[in-house]
Fold this sequence. Notes:
Helices cover 5% and strands 37% of the residues. The protein is mainly beta.
Amino acid sequence: MQLSKTMKRFSMLGIFLVATLAVSACAGIRPPAPGVTESPISVATPTSPAATPTGPTATPSPAAISVTGDAGQPAATDVPPTPVATQEFDIRSGKLLAAAELRARADAAAQILGEKPADSIVVVTGASGDWYEIVSGLANDGHAWLPKSAITFELTSPTATPAATATPEPTAAPAVVAAPATAVPAPTQNSALDGLLVFQDSLGGTIYLMNADGSGLRALTTGLEPALSPDGSQVAFARWDEPRGLWLINTDGSNERLVYGANRVRSPSWTPDGQSVVFERSTGSKECRDTPFGCLPEDLVQQVFGGEPCIVTQFGTFCVNDYRLISIWTTGITRYNLADGSNRDLPTDSKATAPQVAPGNGEFIFLDSGGFSANHIEGNDPPWPVVQEKVPLGPVSYSPDDQYLYATRHQHDHWQIWRWRIDGSQPTPLTVPDPLGVTTSNNVAPSISPDGKSVVFLTDRTGAWEMWVMNTDGSNQRPLAPDALAGVNFRYDFNSDRTVDWGS
């Protein structure tokens, strides 16, 4: 009788736990980045980052860091590609002569998946009758169909005036309104690129400075996720070894100092006036049991077991201690004023990470458990959603004119760079996998040039992580300063790494 009551309680609570899994304590929590022993202690004990250099221009060794992927992020819901019978075809790029609807099949009566505006660049992968197959990036199967009459392969000069694009209706998978150019690099020079790049080789490793044209590469310090001040004179970065917190250093390597001590600081971002830095930090932690229903408090797990440490079922004996006891960190966004040393916690939820301050509209954007949300730097208004998706997204970068957002988006088993309008509309893939590639590559960590014309990013398309650059429409993708960066061993840990910042 007692067992029957216990099993009934187990069944009812199990149903409840499954229903609440989507909003469990583990969902959307940012996992540890480079680790050192902290209090409370995380379940993992990764290696500490490299020690602080003894001199401002010392060249430290990259840190050996054990980092996991995005814990608790929802799994990608994209459907694996379905083979489509097409004619033999050489993959090539085309341009749309006019706005055209994306069809699920080579049939005018097929389902409409979205629309692309005139002058969009598309990667054409096949043909059937009067239709071309293109890479779409949509959840359907990653491809779509357009009439042959809509596409020209003469890309050297415009053939039509761009048409206005309607804001797509929100769906589980975004309707794509533009497409990238081919991912094959074009042999162009980087000498026209202006500005200064600050970047890390890995989380907690060496931080470098380099002119955007590839000249002047030098090691600056160690730490993670550096950000260049608006006037280009200072770099803000985080450090997780003691003394941990938010650090600043001049770009000439002088005056390295801790300005705000805090636990697990990440993703510093300067306000446009250069007077404050906004960053992520830990606000606490809680212990929970890592169960199939999510990370749950121990007392709730024991409640499922009828108040006993173990329960005997027809499937075997289960005990509370069978499930790992782990620590989950809660996070918040803080603004630190460099002039007077004051700080203020900005209004977000407990899962806010990776903040980025807008260049000129008094707002900042951040990752939360559902995607991107934003809020004002001043005031106490609640945040509002900007892009909310069922697939994981990476940290956001603004365009200098506050018109576009750039970030990574998970697709199937890989990450690609996408662009949105500032209000979250018009999702546009800028990078796509090589259709002829044996393995799927990742393109991550975008940062926009000060003139708003170029995007620097990391890619593993050649088998090793490299820094590349492309136009902001996804065209002209090529390695950035390959000779200068040949000795830099990049590593990307898929832990919402913000690798590079491009400033004036």
